[in-house]
Design goal:
- The protein is built from twelve helices and eight strands.
- With 391 residues, the protein is an alpha/beta fold.
- α6 links the parallel β3 and β4.
- The longest helix has 24 residues.
- The termini are far apart.
Length: 391
């Protein structure tokens, strides 16, 4: 082997080893990472042994298959890219997120007005409508030429203070597609810079009643919410149950806020790697943050404010998704367990290495997000089939 080949081989060996060592560290010493690390070391050693050239080729092939370098995935459940984002980009993302969640009331109102009025092109085959209610707006996306009985009621996140954006209008299209023609209702609720709790919750309850008034049956309605929206989905269902209103057919939550104390174990353990951690992790939470609890004598144990304290008896089937690298991990775990203990049909899925509301990176961009949406599709189909049995 000439000098140039040796240098090239050495560089390739170092690069592969570096990649695997980094993925090993990021993937928290999991079993697949051990395999990749071991193969990498073996390949690196064999690079300097002539008799091992054939084994080298086999080893590199194995390494490529396991590491799946092209998409940065080690296995179906372990994302190298997710780890990188959590370790490296989380502080940067947290800073940007913090800007949105720590603006003054006037600034927040102006930003929300811009986002709400942003141009958005309705995709072919759908009808899009804005319906002005008392202090808030409902947006509907309905498949053209389809007489659907199903509704997906989407409640957006944004720490209660950030209003609707085009990202959620795009998600409405995704929901319509996986909902097999369901009408998607997206609520632009009263954000907290305008009025604190329970204004947003009241809008959610009113919108649910509006959907019923349109002639849709409760069992044909699925509620979905992420982050603050997940909080509102759970709180609204608790309220409906407590007040004798027929509950929806199913519930989907993505990384919901369920305990406004922000003092669970994951709030401390995940604070350094979660995009929300620098603001609300490690016990740094301010009860008056993002205006939602900015009122006298607020009770953070109120189940309509912190659904973790609610009674989940007789709840409809639930799909709860969360990433393992976020301070809200326990918010999902605890509620899911409470619901299971109450006899509820609960599917709780923890996506390894994923960050807060990673589902927003779906549509072919991110494998775990695509996996999550496939799980949502299957859940929606399950609820639809159950509702058909009730007819």
């Amino acid at each position: 082997m000439n000098k140039g080949c040796k240098i090239f081989t050495l560089v390739i060996g170092i690069l592969f080893t570096a990649l695997v060592v980094v993925s090993y560290l990021i993937c928290e010493n999991t079993f697949p990472a051990w395999i990749v690390l071991l193969v990498s070391i073996v390949v690196f050693i064999l690079l300097f042994r002539r008799k091992g050239r054939r084994i080298i080729v086999i080893g590199i092939v194995i390494l490529l298959v396991i590491a799946n370098v092209g998409t940065f995935h080690l296995t179906n459940k372990i994302s190298f890219l997710g780890g990188v984002i959590s370790k490296v980009a989380a502080p940067i993302m947290a800073k940007e997120i913090g800007k949105a969640f720590t603006m003054g009331r006037e600034e927040t109102a102006q930003s929300n007005a811009v986002n709400a009025g942003a141009p958005w092109e309705t995709p072919n085959g759908y009808e899009y409508e804005k319906i002005t209610r008392d202090g808030y707006i409902i947006e509907t996306l309905t498949p053209m030429g389809r007489n659907t009985e199903n509704v997906i009621f989407q409640i957006h996140g944004g720490a209660f203070c950030v209003g609707i954006t085009n990202s959620y209008r795009n998600l409405a299209v995704t929901f319509a597609q996986i909902g097999d023609g369901a009408m998607v209702v997206t609520l632009d609720y009263t954000t907290s810079e305008k009025a604190p709790y329970p204004a947003a919750l009241t809008d959610c309850i009113d919108t649910y009643q509006w959907i019923l008034e349109q002639g849709y049956q409760p069992e044909h309605i699925i509620l979905s919410g992420d982050s603050a929206g997940g909080n509102l989905v759970l709180a609204m269902t608790l309220y409906l149950k407590d007040h004798g209103v027929v509950l929806p057919g199913g519930i989907i939550t993505m990384s919901p806020v369920t305990d406004m104390h922000f003092n669970s174990e994951s709030c401390y353990e995940k604070a350094e790697e979660c995009v929300l951690g620098s603001f609300w992790g490690n016990g740094k939470f301010d009860p008056n943050a993002f205006f939602y609890t900015d009122k006298d004598e607020i009770d953070l144990n109120d189940p309509y404010l912190s659904p973790v304290f609610g009674d989940y008896t007789d709840f409809p089937p639930m799909l709860m998704q969360v990433g393992t690298r976020e301070i809200l991990l326990d918010d999902t775990r605890i509620v899911a367990q409470k619901a299971k203990d109450a006899g509820v049909d609960v599917t709780e899925t923890e996506y390894y290495q994923m960050f807060h509301v990673f589902q927003m990176m779906g549509d072919g961009i991110y494998k775990e997000a695509n996996d999550a949406w496939e799980e949502i599709r299957q859940f929606v189909e399950k609820i639809r089939k159950e509702s058909e049995k009730i007819k």
